[in-house]
Amino acid sequence: MKLLWLKAGGLHPQNSGGKIRTYNLLRYLAQRHEVTLVSYHRFGEGEAACDASLKQLLSRVIAIPSSEPAHSTAAFYISYAKSLWSRTPFQLRRFRNVGVARRIAELLNQEQFDLAVCDFLSPVLNLPARKTCPWVLFAHNVEAQIWERRRQAGNWMERAIAQIEFWKMRGCEQRQVRRFEYLWTVSEEDKQYFARCLPENRIQVIRTGVDASFFQRPPGAFRSPNTLLFLGALDWWPNEDAIVNFYRHILPHIRAAVPETEFLIVGRNAGAQLRALARSEAGVKLMSSVEDVRPFLHSATVFVVPLGIGGGTRLKIYEAMASGVPVVSTTIGAEGLKVTSGENIILADDPIDFANACITLLQNPGLRQHLADNALQEIRSYHTWDIVGAELSAVLESALSRPSDKEEGVKR
Fold this sequence. Notes:
Blueprint lengths: L1 E7 L8 H14 L3 E8 L10 H6 L2 E6 L8 H10 L6 H4 L4 H13 L4 E5 L15 E5 L3 H8 L5 H22 L4 E4 L2 H7 L8 E3 L6 H4 L11 E5 L5 H21 L4 E6 L4 H9 L3 E5 L5 H6 L2 E4 L9 H8 L4 E3 L16 E2 L3 H13 L1 H18 L2 H16 L2 H9 L1
Parallel strand pairs: 1-2, 1-4, 2-3, 4-5, 5-6, 6-7, 8-9, 8-11, 9-10, 11-12, 12-13
Helix pairs in contact: 1-16, 6-7, 10-14
């Protein structure tokens, strides 16, 4: 099968959930199909289309330079201000690229692909109006839902921006989804949301996976006492919001019962607010842009996911489970994952309940081990990338075995 895969931003380094998911699924597919990856990103900033091991598997890698301004820079805010009067969400406008659109059109006109994949909604404005093969949107999130939830947090300006972007994204996302022959989501909840846009038989859930052997905890690895770990992309606003709320509303209750508790924050590109928080508080440590997160996972006592805003699924929960560390999460934090509270995770939404769950685990080694053992068994049985990749490959074969759908896609 010949596939074209369009991705805004590179896949290396793998420092976000979306990158990790796409990277591992491409590794699986590239060993069985002919895959061309088109990636566009800012060159010279340590980002690459993919690493050498994936490049060897892919049929072709086309990397196109992008002038899209870096997040939180003056150019970024100027670009956003210019977009305020447009009906198109800024998240889509900023990833529009004339060079990418031209290259995609050339590839589709010169070659016959069986299927083309738009990875995330971000690159959608670069797709040609005329199709020569069916297209699938790989929706890692419901973008409008993230903006809708974001309206409820932050200062007045952040809430106002979230409201504007929600208004724009809600309609635009649904219009764009209808352009596609197929849609992949990462959770059943997201599938039900998008069922208003496409028939359900054209929507498939691609489950989240994890490299269980990569994250396996070495025998005898050191376990820090009373250490709570948050791991994630620190330049993603929902994560920063979760950390700040955890520090303000949950951590004080935990320290009242376990005064020696440390809060460790690990992830990429921490902003000024998180850096200031770590400097001002003795029991809060920040490790930004680390090369390997496994030592932190293996040494943590409890893994916390206090998200109040988000979409899609959190790969970091499965990484924690594969690492043998028990997890406490909000319901939104674990949304879309196959987990059972009290069996392989603890779910708590109220700040006091969340704090009490952490306290119970910090004080009860037996319960920690029980949750960790059950979680690891769940991961190994159902959620390795080989299992998920095989399911995705079957989805591809099934989609292309229906001539009516394929012919309909070409005619649109």
